Amino acid sequence: MFSKTCEYAIRAMIFIAQKSKDGNKVGIKEIAKGIDSPEHFIAKILQDLGRRGLLQSAKGPNGGFYLNEETLQCSLADIVKVVDGDKLFTGCGLGLKQCSETHPCPIHHDFKSVRKKLQTMLENARIGEFTEKLELSLTFLKR
Question: Which fold is adopted by the domain 4-135?
């Protein structure tokens, strides 16, 4: 459903939210290990998310990535839109270019309702909401 880049972006943002909630900054090595991703790949993803204003970073010996009160309110939909665009929320379930209300594909009407439910769920899911369940080991971010 999401691209590999988007999956890593979401996992990294949740991991950073958990680790930076007490004002700490998290380095690339710790993030990559914590979400089971390649360092160079996650570094590029996080640089892009930082440029787009979805997270903060600080350079230097005590530097790293972190989220503030505003970016903790970022939704999963915000991340998906930045990384993968809005095709998940607007595109055809079969990938057809001509699919529309007047020219629907075979799954158009069913997929439209599923797509809307997914969009609502992702828009309502805030990054800062996931930290408690991670700390209680009720959820996890790596295999």
Answer: Arc Repressor Mutant, subunit A (1.10.10)
Q: How many CA atoms lie within 13 A of 30 on its CB side?
A: 14
**Which spans in the chain are helix H?**
4-20, 28-35, 39-51, 76-84, 87-90, 108-124, 131-135
Alpha carbon distances (Å) from 111 to 84, 97, 99, 100, 142: 19, 15, 11, 12, 30
Query: Domain residues of the chain, as ranges?
Result: 4-135
* Tens place of pLDDT per residue across the chain (143 aa): 799 999 999 999 999 999 988 889 999 999 999 999 999 999 999 999 999 999 999 998 889 999 999 999 999 999 999 999 998 998 899 989 889 999 999 999 999 999 999 999 999 999 989 888 888 888 888 77
